[in-house]
Every structure is written in C-alpha cells, then in structure tokens.
Amino acid sequence: MEWASWRVMYLQIMDDLGFDTLADVASAERLSSLVGKGRVPNYDAIANILGRDVIIAGPAAGLEKDLESLLGSEILISAGSATGRLMGLGIIPDVLVTDLDGDVGLEIEAIERGSLAFVHAHGDNRARIEEVVPRLSKPFVPTVQCKPFGNVYNFGGFTDGDRAVLTALHFGAERIRTIGWDLDDPFPKEGCDPDLKRRKLSWAKKVLRPYLGGSQ
C-alpha cells in the first residue's frame, strides 16, 4: 500500500485511539538511526523469501490446533506474539512481523536462526527498539506507520497481523491463508489493555476487508 493511500486511514486510527503521530515519527527516526549500512535486504531478496503461497499465524487461542493444517509448502509468517508460541513448539517461522511487544528473546532467537524480521516502530515502543535492534546481527526490514523515509518502510497496516498481510501482498503473495486469528476476541496478554486491543483489532478488520473479505 502506498503512503498516499494509507495516510488517510492511519490518521483516522490515530485520532480514534488518541495516539500521538509525532511520537511515531520520533520512534521511526530512532529506528532509522540504528539501522546500519547493509542491514536491510533488497527487494528481490525479500520477495524470494516471501514467495507466492503464504500462511500467516496470529496469536489467537486456537493457534496450536490450527497448526495441524500446515501444508509444508507455504511460507510461514508469524505476527506479533505468535512467534513465541511457535518457537515454544520448535517451529521457526520463515518471516516474523513484530513491534517488539511479545517475547523478544524468542523473537531474537528466531531471527538469529534464519527468520526474516520486519521490525516496526511506533510511538510506544522506542525503548524496546533501543534495547533490541542493537542485538540483531542479521539483516532485517525496518518498518514504520508514519510517512516512510530513508531506510525505513511503510507497507500499510496498524497491528502486526494486518501489517503481515499487506506486507505479503506488497511482495507478490498470490495466496494468503490465516491461522490463529480471532479479530473479535484477542488472546490475553500481560500488560495489555483488552479494550484497547479490541479497538485495534476492529481497525485491523477494516484495513483487511478489501483484501481478505470475510476470511479474517
């Protein structure tokens, strides 16, 4: 999704949730400053990893059961705290999309063991960015939700899940299947306001409606 298209919904979301756009910019600038030369894979390398047939794992209560439907030929993308759940089962995702509010130790382990990471900056996670990004030795893709610039990118989306879908589409995915998704009943997470999470997921549904229809 191009910034001109995403900007309208982004500003609506920020206004509805009472978030600070300037804080997003400050966090994006810090992420950009921590991304050294040669740390970002080029477009073709990312597209080759993502492939055409993608399954995106979310952290809903039914994730573990849904894993029984894995075909083996799909590229597995984990969104948010689904990464820690997958790693706990010995499954290393091909790609992970994170704003660093899950088990960052397991996310770092996944990255070091070969997962391509899309690491996201927003106004509330600057401290996590400063903690985690210097520890990463592998190339990764830095993403933002404000206007992109320099070495940080915006493929659209507000939560890890809808960002994962829009990112996969951006890099040419033709078939996207989701598992472990429940945008009406978020999986409980320590330190997370469940009402705010529901409001975020309501926006995620609006973001995804043109792409996934009723399948999310």
Summarize the structure in words.
With 216 residues, this protein is of the alpha/beta class. It has one domain (3-208). It is 44% helix and 13% strand. It has helices spanning 3-17, 21-34, 43-50, 63-66, 82-88, 104-112, 126-132, 160-170, 194-212, and strands at 53-57, 75-79, 95-98, 116-121, 141-144, 175-179. The chain has a six-stranded parallel β-sheet, sandwiched between helices. α7 (126-132) links the parallel β4 and β5. α5 packs across α6. The longest helix has 19 residues, at 194-212. It is globular and about 45 Å long. The two termini are 19 Å apart.
Largest sheet: 6 strands, parallel
Write down the Rg: 16 Å
Between the first and last Cα atoms, what is the distance in angstroms?
19 Å
Q: How many separate structural domains?
A: 1
Total number of helices:
9
Overall geometry comes to globular
Q: Could you tell me the strand content as a percent range?
A: 5-15%
**Structural class per helix/strand content?**
alpha/beta
List the helices and strands in order: HHHEHEHEHEHEHEH
Q: If strands are numbered along the chain, what order do they take across the biggest sheet? A: 5-4-3-2-1-6
Q: What share of the residues lie within helices?
A: 40-55%
Mean pLDDT: 92
Q: How many β-strands, per DSSP?
A: 6
Low-confidence stretches: none
